[in-house]
Amino acid sequence: MMVQYDRLAARILMICPPYPSHRQAFAALAEALRARGHHIRFLDGGMVRSLPCPPDVHRQPAHLHAEIAAGADRTRMLCKHGPAAIATYRPDLILGDQTEPAAGLLSRHLDIPMISIACALPFDDEPGVPIPFLGWQPDRSERGARRLQTARRIAQWVMRRQSMVIRTVALEWGLGPLRDFSDCVSPLMTLAQTVPGFDHPRPVTGNHVHHMGLFRDPVAEPMPCDIRPDPTRPLVYVSLGTLQGHRHRLLARIARACRTAGAQVLVSLGGQPAEQAHDIPADWVRSYVPQRAVLGRAQVCVTHAGLNTVMECLEQGVPMLALPLTNDQPGVAARIARTGTGLRLSPVLATEARIRTAVRSLLTDPSFRMNADAFAQDACHWPRARGAVDAVEHVLGRPPALVMPPAERHEWRQ
Questions:
Q1: pLDDT-derived band of residue 402, with 50, 70 and 90 as boundaries?
Q2: Domain at 235-379: CATH architecture
Q3: Model-wide pTM > 0.70
Q4: Upper half-sphere CA count for residue 299 (Cβ side, 13 Å)
Q5: End-to-end alpha carbon distance in the chain
Q6: What is the signed CA dihedral for 80, 81, 87, 92, rounded to 10 degrees?
């Protein structure tokens, strides 16, 4: 086998926030890039590391305003200490998570090319497509454009602490009037974990956003030995993700509704302690479960509409009931509704009766399963991390590299 030479390698700096699903996606990209011989480092605070610091799920802010404040402080710190650390590393390229605007600010300030990574819904502007925080359908009319412009101003006001940091840093560095996340995305391209047909159509800027599907390959995992669903009854899997698993009252309401709909219920708390969840009347309540294994057995998934969980549902053809709680989840739920792969309810209005009715519809109407199965049939063709690496190497101007066995790989020498 031919060996990939160092002249094809590149120094790549990754910048992403401490959200578990985002770190998992970046880890998959890093592994695929290292397999091609590239040198990978992560910017954490003011240091360049071989690996990112693991996120502490239990210390993540539980409320939106606290999360916005923490994000603004993180962006300010990265912009304060990042230039010196990056200058020492001298990267050829930055891979920046779209939810961390410091990546775009540092890229422009240091004149280092950047590719945006959309672990959540893409922030890239597209006429008529609402910003990810909104659960609206596309509207390309003049009225729709005015409505979206107003919504963007409101979003900037809600995110004013983060917007203030972006504006202040941009003015200090002479980058122009930058205000929000979409102003900080890469002008080159965005690699997104969405897939064609699920994201809203992007006829104007479609070539800018490259849909890769989940970067992580499916891994065969067994069902936990202490969870044995009755094969004669439907199984509903319930998860509100790693940052919302503390919402026990909502989870209890969902569990009661699913059981009265005739289903077995498995609730995952996303890493939260299961010992504190005695008030959730599900058949099984676990701190963590191997999600892909569970989805292989489930007939329906009740989800917060986090993109990672939704893509795993589509990967296995599982219809969903979306209860969007925060961030881009309303936008993800809108795409679930548009594609007919599930239903959505506002958590505020999601009474036990409404959840029960929705779950029964998902269990009895075959169209939801058929629409989800259509995505599952295409999942084997998703480009994933390997396709993302191809796109990165195209930007770098490198010819396609042969993957070599680990023993033949050369470490980059600084």
A1: very low
A2: 3-Layer(aba) Sandwich (3.40)
A3: yes
A4: 22
A5: 26
A6: -80
